[in-house]
Amino acid sequence: MKPFVYDRIHTEWKEWMEEQGEPAFRADQVMDWLYRKRVPRFDEWSNLSHGLRERLADSFNLHALETITSQQSADGTVKFLFQLHDGHAIETVIMRHQYGNSVCVTTQVGCRIGCTFCASTLGGLKRNLTAGEIVAQVVEAQRYLDQAGERVRSVVIMGIGEPFENYDATVRFIRIINDPLGLKIGQRHITVSTSGIVPSIHRFADEGLQVGLAISLHAPNQELRKRLMPVSRRYPLEELLEACHGYEEKTGRRLTYEYALIGGKNDQPEHAHELGQLLTGSGSLVNLIPVNYVPERNYTRTPRNQIFRFQRILESYQVKATVRREHGSDIDAACGQLRAKHMNTERQSS
């Protein structure tokens, strides 16, 4: 299997060109064809010699993803199901906001974290994606937006998988899409979401990056969090919050805590009071997320009036809380849901 062109950072392209006896500026030209012109054929890279184009084609794979299907919501959300070179499927989502287009990318084929409310864990973890396979998702999303003369403004690493269990590829992905010769997506327009892999939070604090970090919390105490998120057995809530406070002190950046509201499980007033007491004085933001219905999980959605009551209770503790705007409610909106449906169809047809 040849490596993907999107796996390489700019300095590695310069090194490769030097090995080929080519001038260093050829690396800039390759980046231009990949990320600015976005031309998906080596033989159309017209300012490179025929011989260099042939060597590129012999050495690298330009096609990391094939579109299996896509769904478009009435609100403009677009969800792609992509096939990888080994037949596995992943999801990528374009979400439209007033401030611009955001792309949600996947970092793993499946997930082993086991959150009980998430469709991504159905079927377990198959493998990690390479940095290039993650980059290619943003490139394909940008190609889609090119048709309307629009661009990707921000990226959230919140799709299928746990980014911090594919740490090196995730950080490399961030550096590639942030590169001025790449997609030029500002670090402050990139957010990583983790279920709470404590050692990686400490490590991420030392990367010198200015990206956002979101913690999937989903419970105000250790016992409930263990039931909803088995990862809390490995990294207890107290240890997680200690790592989060250390991250904020070292980076000077405010964290976001994601809290999926699940009917009758974690959405009662007593949960809101407990969460408010837990986070009061932290200065962090809580993002309240109405849980998406997943048939295999059979969880119910919290009513809207109860969501806003939960928000008001948090704010009474001086904890800033927002309610996430829903995207794609008329399509397979839940993370991993479209992939799960595809897997079921494949099993039935085999």
Automatic annotation (TrEMBL):
Query: What reaction gets catalysed by this protein?
Result: adenosine(2503) in 23S rRNA + 2 reduced [2Fe-2S]-[ferredoxin] + 2 S-adenosyl-L-methionine = 2-methyladenosine(2503) in 23S rRNA + 5'-deoxyadenosine + L-methionine + 2 oxidized [2Fe-2S]-[ferredoxin] + S-adenosyl-L-homocysteine; adenosine(37) in tRNA + 2 reduced [2Fe-2S]-[ferredoxin] + 2 S-adenosyl-L-methionine = 2-methyladenosine(37) in tRNA + 5'-deoxyadenosine + L-methionine + 2 oxidized [2Fe-2S]-[ferredoxin] + S-adenosyl-L-homocysteine
Question: What's its top-level EC category?
Answer: transferase
The protein's Enzyme Commission number: 2.1.1.192
Which interval of the chain is the signal sequence?
none
Q: Which GO terms describe its biological process?
A: methylation
Entry binding sites for [4Fe-4S] cluster = 111, 115, 118
Q: Where is the active site?
A: 91 (proton acceptor), 335 (s-methylcysteine intermediate)
Q: Where in the cell is it found?
A: Cytoplasm
Q: Name one GO molecular function term.
A: methyltransferase activity
Q: Report the residue ranges that make up the Radical SAM core domain in this protein.
A: 97-330
Q: Which Pfam families match?
A: Radical_SAM, RlmN_N
Its cofactor is:
[4Fe-4S] cluster
Q: Which InterPro entries does the annotation name?
A: Aldolase_TIM, Methyltransferase_A, RlmN_N, RNA_MTrfase_RlmN, rRNA_lsu_MTrfase_RlmN/Cfr, rSAM, rSAM_sf
Q: What does this protein do?
A: Specifically methylates position 2 of adenine 2503 in 23S rRNA and position 2 of adenine 37 in tRNAs.
**What family classification does the UniProt entry report for this protein?**
Belongs to the radical SAM superfamily. RlmN family.
UniProt miscellaneous comment: Reaction proceeds by a ping-pong mechanism involving intermediate methylation of a conserved cysteine residue.
- Mind telling me what this protein is named? Probable dual-specificity RNA methyltransferase RlmN
The organism named in the record is: Desmospora profundinema
Name the lineage: Bacteria, Bacillati, Bacillota, Bacilli, Bacillales
Its gene is rlmN
